[in-house]
Design goal:
Strand order of the largest sheet: 6-7-5-15-16-17-14-18
Bound molecules: flavin-adenine dinucleotide
Helix content: 25-40%
Strand content: 25-35%
CATH architecture of the largest domain: 2-Layer Sandwich
CATH superfamily of the largest domain: D-Amino Acid Oxidase, subunit A, domain 2
Number of strands: 20
């Protein structure tokens, strides 16, 4: 019997992780992506492996997803993670007061934390604000975004998944009875239009998910919400430094390779395909970043970039939940053959894939359990068939 066949649109974190899960469960998987792997938000993310601390007070569903997935990713893909930990630091009275709520939130979400005196915090991180009042050590980490997605893609490929990059979905093939039966796509390199038939199409296009769903007359309540990041030319800290307070603009300084990246903001846009870098926001990153790590004020800017969150949770901007959802469009719009997975975080990519593959299995009557929690991922190099 031939394997059920799934076409995934989008090769960011969500699409590559879903390809891995479905390929492991025995599906015939083809991923199409209009650019290269990580062409969208995933290629421009901050790179914080969330412990969940950031969401532990106001968004505990996301916080629990983050801590659980953080621990799993450390096990299955250690080659792309720097397990450097994170500090939440208080630098004014308001931050200090938030401390109690923070401890209660972390406890409720089983996020381990250790309180440090200012002296202990400065010993670990001599370049943070010398007026630090208290600090909490939590299991944040950093990851290399491209290598993370490529590790999932390499593992999917090893189980037979095919990746067609530079191939853009232009429309969805319908059977005349309201069921999606494939994708019509433009291969950018040859300028040819191809038709890819599928038992199920998975829409993993993140912030663009609404555009793909609309091709079938369906809809997704995704709120594209960009943010800016600014890169400075020195690695001032070894850990993720967070402001001990409710999530706000410019309140994370993250070490990446020999630099630090300060992020981020949260705003609305009209054009998903052109998100400007707004100079006032760049200035705000400098101001806020320098409150946490004063040396940033005299550092050189190496880069500025924006990326767009695919938010689906209730609330607006900062207060919108960071959780994810898999939409079976048969249930939401009476359109069969199409599921959309969006929302979430880079940190929760594996869980998002598991949920999606469960829905696909159920819809196609396939009995195959998820195995990704315990399957070590290949090196990103193997995506390109390069030796390790
Ligand atoms: C500013 C910012 C900072 C963030 N920082 C963090 C962080 O530190 N830690 C964390 O865990 N998460 C972070 N996130 C969240 C995380 O980056 C996103 O949740 C994640 O990248 C979304 O991945 P995705 O695969 O769903 O979407 P994307 O990466 O956007 O992938 C969708 C893909 O679909 C493709 N596509 C679109 N339309 C078509 C089409 N018609 N045909 C073919 N392909 C198409 C796009 O090219 C794109 O590659 C951050 C997000 C933002 C915006």
């Amino acid at each position: 019997m031939s394997k059920p066949n799934v076409v995934i649109v989008g090769a960011g974190f969500t699409g590559t992780a879903t390809a891995h899960d479905l390929a492991l469960r025995g599906f015939d998987v083809t991923v199409i992506e209009r650019g290269d792997i990580c062409n969208g938000t995933s290629g421009r993310t901050h790179g914080l492996l969330h412990s969940g601390g950031r969401y532990a007070v106001k968004d505990q569903e996301s916080a629990i997803e983050c801590i659980d997935e953080n621990m799993i990713l450390r096990k299955i893909v250690p080659q792309v993670i720097e397990p450097n930990g994170g500090l939440f630091i208080a630098i004014d009275e308001g931050d200090l007061q938030y401390g109690e709520t923070f401890i209660a939130g972390c406890e409720a979400c089983h996020i381990p934390l250790e309180e440090l005196t200012p002296k202990e915090a400065l010993k670990l991180e001599p370049n943070i604000n010398p007026n630090v009042l208290t600090a909490f050590l939590i299991p944040d980490g950093t990851f290399d975004p491209l290598r993370l997605a490529l590790s999932f893609a390499a593992s999917a490929k090893a189980n037979g998944a095919k990746f067609k990059t530079y191939t853009e979905a232009k429309s969805l093939l319908m059977d005349g009875k309201g069921t999606v039966v494939g994708v019509k796509a433009l291969e950018r390199t040859s300028n040819q239009t191809v038709e890819l038939r599928a038992d199920m199409v998975v829409n993993a296009t993140g912030a663009w998910a609404g555009e793909i769903a609309e091709m079938a007359g369906a809809s997704v309540p995704v709120k594209p919400t960009p943010g800016v990041m600014v890169v400075y030319d020195q690695r001032f800290v070894q850990r993720a430094i967070n402001r001990l307070n409710a999530p706000g603009d410019g309140d994370i300084v993250l070490p990446q390779r020999r630099m630090v990246v300060v992020g981020t903001t949260s705003f609305e846009i009209d054009n998903l395909d052109y998100v400007p870098v707004i100079e006032e926001q760049v200035q705000l990153m400098l101001e806020r970043g320098a409150e946490l790590v004063p040396g940033i004020r005299n550092a050189k800017v190496r880069g500025k970039y924006t990326a767009t969150r695919p938010l689906i949770g209730a609330g607006e901007g900062r207060s919108a939940a960071r959780t994810f959802k898999c939409y079976d469009h048969k249930e939401t719009d009476n359109v069969d053959g199409l599921v959309t997975i969006t929302g979430g975080k880079a940190t929760t990519l594996r869980a998002m894939a598991e949920k999606t593959a469960d829905v696909v299995c159920e819809k196609l009557g396939v009995h195959a359990a998820c195995a990704t929690k315990d399957t070590p991922l290949l090196s990103y190099r193997q995506y390109y068939n390069m030796p390790n």
